[in-house]
Amino acid sequence: MSDAMPNSLHTGERPLLQTIGLTKRYGDFLANASIDIDIFPREIHALLGENGAGKSTLVKAIYGLIQPSAGEIRWQGERIVLSGPSEARARGIGMVFQHFSLFENLTVAENVALGLDGKESFKDMSARLEQVSKTYGLPLDPKREVWQLSVGERQRIEIVRALMQDPKFLILDEPTAVLTPQEADQLFIVLERLKAEGRAVLYISHKLEEVKRLCDTATILRGGRKVATCNPRQETAASLARMMVGGEIKEVKAAAGRQTTVPRLVVNDLTLAPDEPHGVRLDHISLELKGGEILGIAGVAGNGQDELFAALSGERLSKDPGTVVIEGIAAGHLSITQRRKLGAAFVPEERLGHGTAPRMRLSENALLTGHAASGMVRHGFIDTAATLKTVDKATETFDVRKAKRDPEAASLSGGNLQKFIVGREILRNPAVLVVSQPTWGVDAGAAAVIRQALLDLAASGAAVLVTSQDLDELAEIADRIAVMFHGRLSAPLAAGEATRERLGLLMGGSSLDQREVAHAARA
Amino acid sequence: MQLVLEKRAERSNAIALVSPLIAIGLTIVTMTILFAILGKNPLLALQAYFIAPLTDGYSLQEIAVKATPLVMIAIGLSLCYLANAWNIGAEGQFLIGAVAGSWIAVKTQGTDAGAWVLPAMLLLGAIGGALYALIPAICKVKFGASEILTSLMLVYVADLFLDYLVRGPWRDPHGFNFPTTAEFDPVATVPVLIEGGRLHLGSIIALLVVAAAAVLLGRTIKGFEIRVVGAAPRAARFGGFNANQLIILTFAVSGALAGLAGIIEVAGPIGHLQPGISPGYGFTAIIVAFLGRLNPIGILIAGLFLALTFIGGEQAQIAMKIPLDVTKVFQGILLFYVLACDSLILYRFRLVFPNRQVTRGTG
């Protein structure tokens, strides 16, 4: 696209950080192939790319977590070799990871202290913590224990911890993946402020609208190589997506004339205490899902979605059979196998280790959920031909790419494994499908295949329940969207009414009616 | 230059087969050094250990006799280990099985009880071993007690219980005060296969157990359940398999097999109950299970190999005055190498040179 553009923007200015021909290989695999990137002060620089494009590898090298195999990193014009993250921090490079490293049972201040080098007293540090959090509008109570905090608040701890080292350059890895739209807006204000102070920000994301709004420059990676550096504001979301994916993405289409029929999955006033110390209590959850319908459940991670999945699947049982009704039969007390026999199918969030046994073959993983009701077992003996047939059929129908006919699950890429798992369940012709994060960490092509499959399944009359943190995904496929917050489920909104703003408010815990009443009163 | 251990994309089946052989090779190298340190001629010692027992019929029979309990116990243990349940107490289950079965032999001693005695003994031996194995299993499931500790500690309880019986209530009144029961009656004895030989019916039972385990693990949904619970517990729960039920089941089965091995040993080669009926079969079987890759056929081969070390150890002691404990050292070193070589199934060595010259190592 417009490769020369950033240089004209920064004429005469020296880049704060440069990588020149940065290359990282893992065995035969080239994670980064000769990447050049220039990052200037007073710049929010987006790093765009699909999963596996090499974004994480690149920032890990910049942050000193891994050593590049070749190429160099220059900091303020001078070549540096980082011995580790502490040296990166000492030079003024900070990073906020997507997965937080916080101790749940310690307080905010204790967690921050653990991340610093510990030269100042705890009291001075706490005072500075309060001051930094106030200055940047990142409110935090230093004395609260982390387990009590929301995901957004936890991210604030990580950001404040990084800011307390006064970095010149801050890397953020998909910071909005866990935030409500409103929380994301607050984060953008902080980032704009950092930029105004003359700092540089490297912003990793695959949310294109966000990048167009916030970032001055975007570097796009694909398959470990740099595809382009451009000004995202001069691009369209579609043109950015094309550069990321390297082609057009098929749009998913709902089949016309979808009709909803009888309720196939009903949840009645389901309340369930958590089974682990920091788990979420499910609080009077009710929903009704008819055949032919897709219900989306939005919400920030950790608000009870995992617990709801376990209660629906039967991995956790309810004392009251009537709390979960599958195909008109009270199933709250039934095991996951019995629920499968009633026609339910489940796809958990975690592909490896939950949805599949990683070191077992695909045929064995077909048996994992297929033994209940797919004729793969006769008199206790496994019909190997039937399990292999499921593998072949899933491969063919959902375009699963793999090196041989029946490899281990762990050897497939995330997208292909997810296609296999979703395919395995859909091939059973379920009456009810409960899916958690169907396209999490999956490349755009596979995501489109999976979403289309869910739409087609609903069109064939099944009831589909989709839990997702990706609002765009829910907007694309769901007929109605409800929001989970602190173990409660909001009343579902019809897809047309479920704007980002309204969902965002629900995700932040406000009850919609009060807010809207307040708005109306002000207006 | 740097040597790195690198994860393989898939488990290597070739290495899975070769790794026990590498382990045996490394063990022999280590033993050679050890023999040299002991001041013995390593070549002669190895000859006494591994070659001599294979050269005469008596020793060959004796290898099969020793392998019988090892294989039976190890098959049971492999089911536990595959399911991630760590039964270390097979030695105790072996002893309790021997005690439980012997009870009938002692009570029917000198009566004209019929052919039902031996089958009843075998059955009771298996039940005794299973019940004894259920103690740690239930403690694990109900209270979360580590089955490794409880099953191991119960070995000593069983040992002392047997000791008490043969010194007290079950002692042979005509036995000159030796701590032993009377010789079992012929109806309470496992028949030998060859007239005048040592090979007995138990070896056939062991082969049947191997075949049954191979079918169970390879062909049945129960076997799949055992493997998946051990390999990926959360996926197993998602598949609808109950790990706790499986702990109970695998402990019961492995206890039963250890108990059966115990009563066969007592009613077969030994012929009466006494302390020291096991030279550590229950512990050696742990090595057999791992050396055999937790695979029934592998366990059969490994059991024969370990039996060879027992017989070879005795021959080396007689011929070269090498202490019998060296056999235990040998077995310990072997387990160590087996476990170490196992990491090569999932990982490989790779030599990494700076300047981006990458050379693939073998292994």
Give a concise summary:
Chain A is α/β, with parallel strands linked by helices. Helices cover 35% and strands 23% of the residues of chain A. Chain A is built from 18 helices and 23 strands.
What does this structure look like?
- The complex is a heterodimer of chains A (523) and B (363).
- Chain A has 523 residues and is an alpha/beta fold.
- Chain A has 3 domains: 1-90 and 167-248, 3-Layer(aba) Sandwich (Rossmann fold), CATH 3.40.50.300; 93-166, no CATH class; 263-522, Rossmann fold, CATH 3.40.50.
- In chain A, 35% of the residues lie in helices and 23% in strands.
- The two termini of chain A are 45 Å apart.
- Residues 1-8 and 515-523 of chain A have low confidence and may be disordered.
- Chain B is mainly alpha-helical and 363 residues long.
- Chain B has a domain at 65-303.
- Chain B is built from 13 helices and 3 strands, in the order βαααααααααααααββ.
- In chain B, β2 and β3 form a beta hairpin.
- In chain B, α3 packs antiparallel against α10 (243-270) and α7 (201-219) crosses α8.
- The longest helix of chain B has 28 residues, at 243-270.
- Chain B starts with a strand and ends with a strand.
- The chains are: A alpha/beta (523), B mainly alpha (363).
- The interface between A and B is medium-sized, with 37 and 23 residues.
- Chain B: This is ABC transporter permease.
- Chain B: InterPro entries: ABC_transp_permease.
- Chain B: The chain crosses the membrane at residues 12-38, 116-135, 147-166, 199-217, 246-268, 280-308, 329-349.
- Chain B: Keywords: Cell membrane, Membrane, Transmembrane, Transmembrane helix.
